[in-house]
Amino acid sequence: MDKIYLIGLPGSGKSHTGSWLAKKLGWDFVDLDEQIENSENQTISELFKQLGEDGFRKLEQTALKRTFAYKQCVVSCGGGTPVWDNNMEMMGRHGLTVYLNTELQEIIRRLEAGNVNRPLISDSIPLAVQIAELNEKRRPIYSRAKVVWNKNEPTEHFFRSLDRLLTIY
Ligand code: S3P
Questions:
Q1: Which atom of ligand 1 is nearest to the CA of 36?
Q2: Starting at the edge strand that comes first in sequence, how are the strands of the sheet with 73-76 ordered?
């Protein structure tokens, strides 16, 4: 297998872990949101506003399918990528799916500290409530990943386990 798909809630650390992992493997790092923004020349927020969630998910799936042809890369998915259509199943066929099961408290802390505009997160509902709801909905799908990482940060052990698994799958 020559691809890893990192999945998890917004703030779970997909981009940070993805670029760290890619460097250690000597692979490319691909951020799906960034690819969409570059190919459409608009921000994720603008695309949500303009196309609605369904329209955005179609673009996201097109970007995801593009990665299937890539070699040796770690892909950081958007938080909603795995829950749309058959994306999770397709990722599983093309790469090793890895769920970053970061603690919700830590996710909330990161989202509060960061200044990133996330269109699905509203200002009028407490963040902890929104994250708990997203988690409830998405957890069953995220949990279908081949690997579930239950710590808030990647470690050397995480890297070595994935490296070994890549030779098996
Ligand atoms: C989304 C998460 C975002 C981005 C979009 C939708 C989601 O990515 O794709 O705003 O549905 O959870 P991050 O998980 O990188 O924040």
A1: 9
A2: 28-31, 73-76, 3-7, 96-100, 147-149
Does the Cβ of 83 fall within 6 Å of ligand 1? Answer: no
Domain that holds residue 100: 3-168
Identify the pLDDT of residue 117.
Answer: 74
Is the pLDDT score of 67 beyond 80?
Answer: yes
Q: Is the beta carbon of 16 within 6 A of some atom in ligand 1? A: no
CA-proximal residue: ligand 1, atom 16 (nearest): 10
Q: Is the pTM of this model over 0.90?
A: yes
Task: Return the CATH number at 62.
Answer: 3.40.50.300
The rounded distance, in Å, linking the Cα atoms of 154 and 92 is 21
Ligand 1 center from residue 122 Cα (angstroms)? 13
Q: Answer whether residue 119 shows pLDDT above 80.
A: yes
